[in-house]
Amino acid sequence: MTLEIITSDSLAPFRHGFFTRRGGASSGIFSGLNCGPGSSDQAEIVAINRARVAQAMEVPAAALATVHQVHSPTVLTVTAPPTDPRPKADAMVTATPGIAIAVLTADCQPVLLADAEAGVIGAAHAGWRGARDGVLEATVNAMLALGASRDGLKAVIGPSISQRAYEVGPEFFEDFIAEDHTNTRFFAGGNGDRMHFDLPAYGLHRLREAGVQAEWTRHCTYSDPERFYSYRRTTHAGEADYGRLISAIRL
Prior knowledge:
Layout: E1 5-6, E2 15-19, H1 43-57, E3 64-65, E4 75-77, E5 91-94, E6 100-105, E7 109-115, E8 120-126, H2 128-133, H3 135-145, E9 154-157, E10 167-168, H4 170-179, E11 187-189, E12 195-197, H5 199-209, E13 213-216, H6 231-237, E14 245-250
């Protein structure tokens, strides 16, 4: 099956893509393009999937750069693909041609960024914790340090869990409101004391407050099992594990 790659005109002319699960070699609960070496999928199958992504990005498999994601605000500036063991970080930036920087997600926000004029790109994994702790702003700042400008920067949030599928408890709500009372705008009422959190809207807000033009592709990972992996959907289904989507960009 052919790979399915979601792109955005905002990131042109750079080769990039938010890859769906279609076109991969994995089977069973991982069926499709599982690119997560941290999953319990067969390592050789994950390697095949990642090689297919590298080919689509027109780089050698070794030039598809990922990190050990830990829901942090840590950003790595790369001039060569990290080698194993991969450093712990949740974003990468580069101005070096020939490297495809990529993040893995399964409900969290994959964010690809670019300044076409400056020739600087970035990729960030932004769940609620990383976004709240500043990974998006840290990625922007790291790109500025490489010569990007706020006016030239554009960011695209890829497939993520949507508000209607993201139910949270009162403690989650209270923590966000304690940080900034205006964060109430990202919550809607649910059943009982439950709320629904709008992760993509929160990500867009943080990016725009940082002076970056930003958009969301408006794909919900939870609601489309044929195309996307979802940690939350897997949890609700009682499955043992889940695949990871990959999103990549290169100069």
